[in-house]
Amino acid sequence: MIHPVIMAGGTGSRLWPMSRQLNPKQFLKLTNGPLSMLQATVARLEGMDAANPLLICNEEHRFLAAEQMRQSGHEDTRIILEPCGRNTAPAIALAALQLTEAAENGADDPLMLVLAADHLIKDVTAFQEGVKKAIPLAREGKLVTFGIVPNHPETGYGYIHRGTELGPDSYLVDKFVEKPDQATANGYLDSGEYLWNSGMFLFGARQYLEELEAHRPDILAACRAAIADTADDLHFTRINAERFAECPSDSVDYAVMEKTDKAAVVSLDAGWSDIGSWSALWEVSDKDADGNSLTGDVITHNTANTLIRADSRLVATVGVDNLVVIETKDALLVAHKDSVQDVKTVVERIKTDGRHEHMNHREVYRPWGVYDSIDNGARYQVKRITVKPGAKLSVQMHHHRAEHWIVVSGTARVTNGEKTYLVTENQSTYIPVGQVHSLENPGVIDLELIEVQSGSYLGEDDIVRYEDRYGRK
């Protein structure tokens, strides 16, 4: 049995304004299908002899990750929470330590299939066949990576030079090479001996830990210390934050794969992309006769080779070529396709200017549902709130704001001080400043309501929680 380990960290700033710090690209539906990138990663495991996936993500994404796994039918998935980012070598070490601890004494070394949550693979059958070819190599003690057969001289990926052939599409790794310039990339493609480095792996958990011990014992020691002190919270595994913060940050390539003599590679031709930019998404998207990829309410005239995504309103283009136009409820990006790698510069400018558009969308997901900040001013804010059936917001209090709730549909159970009562469609209630209160949906349909906040301070940190079923402090 294979143990899928899905790494769902990262912020994907090059895909702003869709990808935000609190809602990054792995949780987005980027390819016009019904699944997010994470859900598509899970779906391509169907039909394989695989255990329930083990997920690794940032603590601030925990509820988003858990909800998407629940929607995928994996409600019991364990999720290791990273209190801070330390790159892929420590993340994989945490998973390997947990898998080896759970394995019975004398059992085979658990095979870890390490996947990134934000990759696109169009040919699932070819992907699964590649994994099958890698299994015997991993059983022999090899650390197997998957190399993508290049179809153009890409300068944005690292490459793997394949060595001695081990079997069908399987080779020893001769060396890893950094992202090349254009002339070097042309030579790699012409030689037929180089593969793109996908960042996907298959190896035994114990074998990985042995190699990490040999080449980066400092990383392994920090991870052992962090995972020796864990706390289970719902489906989440919380590790010791102070110990993990002391762990050096390094990628699995630098820490292990480039140093070990046990590296092997299986070549994979499966329509892979890491969708690292808007131009990369345009490359893999379906296009019309003019080379346009269009999503949402879009009208084009004399427009070619352009990616347009309209989230909340009509977007129209006239006489443009080779552009990226991304519209969300609170931001608009217009960029030349040849310059999309510089989108991260805009994100840094947003941070420097003290703005908030890099953090989250206007629509924010919570474990109980979602809210949309539809209007705001100096002393007021208006939100449209959706509470899932059976869900409940925390018992809380605000020091600086009062709230009016108007129910649009469904039924709310409101605790307002010492009183608890129902509020139904077209009814409203008022929560004074300093009043302990809570909101719950006791029904079987979504509860929709409008919340009008008023006061001297309206930030989300003006919440004193007394009780919360989702473990939030």
Automatic annotation (TrEMBL):
<dbReference type="Pfam" id="PF22640">
    <property type="entry name" value="ManC_GMP_beta-helix"/>
</dbReference>
<keyword id="KW-0808">Transferase</keyword>
<comment type="subunit">
    <text>Monomer.</text>
</comment>
<dbReference type="InterPro" id="IPR001538">
    <property type="entry name" value="Man6P_isomerase-2_C"/>
</dbReference>
<dbReference type="InterPro" id="IPR049577">
    <property type="entry name" value="GMPP_N"/>
</dbReference>
<feature type="domain" description="Mannose-6-phosphate isomerase type II C-terminal">
    <location>
        <begin position="354"/>
        <end position="468"/>
    </location>
</feature>
<dbReference type="InterPro" id="IPR014710">
    <property type="entry name" value="RmlC-like_jellyroll"/>
</dbReference>
<dbReference type="Pfam" id="PF01050">
    <property type="entry name" value="MannoseP_isomer"/>
</dbReference>
<dbReference type="InterPro" id="IPR054566">
    <property type="entry name" value="ManC/GMP-like_b-helix"/>
</dbReference>
<keyword id="KW-0170">Cobalt</keyword>
<dbReference type="GO" id="GO:0004475">
    <property type="term" value="F:mannose-1-phosphate guanylyltransferase (GTP) activity"/>
</dbReference>
<dbReference type="InterPro" id="IPR005835">
    <property type="entry name" value="NTP_transferase_dom"/>
</dbReference>
<dbReference type="InterPro" id="IPR029044">
    <property type="entry name" value="Nucleotide-diphossugar_trans"/>
</dbReference>
<keyword id="KW-0413">Isomerase</keyword>
<dbReference type="GO" id="GO:0004476">
    <property type="term" value="F:mannose-6-phosphate isomerase activity"/>
</dbReference>
<keyword id="KW-0548">Nucleotidyltransferase</keyword>
<keyword id="KW-0342">GTP-binding</keyword>
<dbReference type="GO" id="GO:0042121">
    <property type="term" value="P:alginic acid biosynthetic process"/>
</dbReference>
<feature type="domain" description="MannoseP isomerase/GMP-like beta-helix">
    <location>
        <begin position="296"/>
        <end position="349"/>
    </location>
</feature>
<dbReference type="GO" id="GO:0009298">
    <property type="term" value="P:GDP-mannose biosynthetic process"/>
</dbReference>
<comment type="similarity">
    <text>Belongs to the mannose-6-phosphate isomerase type 2 family.</text>
</comment>
<keyword id="KW-0547">Nucleotide-binding</keyword>
<dbReference type="GO" id="GO:0005525">
    <property type="term" value="F:GTP binding"/>
</dbReference>
<dbReference type="InterPro" id="IPR011051">
    <property type="entry name" value="RmlC_Cupin_sf"/>
</dbReference>
<dbReference type="InterPro" id="IPR051161">
    <property type="entry name" value="Mannose-6P_isomerase_type2"/>
</dbReference>
<dbReference type="Pfam" id="PF00483">
    <property type="entry name" value="NTP_transferase"/>
</dbReference>
<comment type="pathway">
    <text>Nucleotide-sugar biosynthesis; GDP-alpha-D-mannose biosynthesis; alpha-D-mannose 1-phosphate from D-fructose 6-phosphate: step 1/2.</text>
</comment>
<dbReference type="InterPro" id="IPR006375">
    <property type="entry name" value="Man1P_GuaTrfase/Man6P_Isoase"/>
</dbReference>
<keyword id="KW-0511">Multifunctional enzyme</keyword>
<keyword id="KW-0016">Alginate biosynthesis</keyword>
<comment type="function">
    <text>Produces a precursor for alginate polymerization. The alginate layer provides a protective barrier against host immune defenses and antibiotics.</text>
</comment>
<comment type="pathway">
    <text>Nucleotide-sugar biosynthesis; GDP-alpha-D-mannose biosynthesis; GDP-alpha-D-mannose from alpha-D-mannose 1-phosphate (GTP route): step 1/1.</text>
</comment>
<feature type="domain" description="Nucleotidyl transferase">
    <location>
        <begin position="4"/>
        <end position="289"/>
    </location>
</feature>
<protein>
    <recommendedName>
        <fullName>Alginate biosynthesis protein AlgA</fullName>
        <ecNumber>2.7.7.13</ecNumber>
        <ecNumber>5.3.1.8</ecNumber>
    </recommendedName>
</protein>
